[in-house]
Amino acid sequence: MGLPSVGRRRAPGLRREEVAQLAGVGVTWYTWLEQGRPINVSAQVIGAVARALRLDDDEIAHLFTLAGLPAPTVVSEDEVIAASLSAILDGLDPLPAYAVSARYDLLAWNRSCATLMGDFARLPPHRRNMLWLLFAERSLRERVGGYDTETGTQCVARFRRNFAAHVGDPAWRALVDELDERSEEFRRLWDRHDVAANSSKIKDFRHPLVGRLRLASTTLWLADQPGARLVVYNPVDSRGRDLLERLTRRTGEPPQPSARTFAPPG
Fold it and tell me: Distance of alpha carbon 234 from its chain centroid, rounded?
């Protein structure tokens, strides 16, 4: 917390005086707040206490409830990303494109991507995850041709590389535990402890309307959102572009872009 060491503590955690210091309030006033005295407390001060205690969104909402104040509206990081990428993704049509977090949660996608890879908006928000769709539900394998052990190995190795920076995050741990339970293949690959960086590559897609599509993936990192990236699929030849345009015309109006319609899991 950046506080000076005072030696051994009788109990774990911050002292009352330290919380007051970190929150920028007086010790007496903070003591009265802990004791539940009828003092005037503002949302700004309660917010400062919440930051000092490093509370998460649910804990902040609970603290505001205890203080008799309306909880602040929390805009998740994923919602911010989805809103800012909406126009970019729409402008990339007919090139399939999507935004994905470091945890492989799908944040947003355009209509061409939904047409090619499936309508992710039909999935519950907590299941809009590329690893889940690849290893647990396995629905992505129906569209991605040429899936083999090497493909799965690389996916898990890239995810483990990202996981290293989120070891203590319960959401990341929960995803690993669920995949471990549902997929023997994921469990085996996870236990290998391989790591790998993201890289561009050419992928084969199979679509029931136009057949085989050969597309090259390009990854664009989002500098203001660590780990999040934009993935765009480009045809490797003129035939591929013609097939993508034909596919977009034949499928008609797709569901509304998810970038405007959902808040992905945190």
Answer: 24
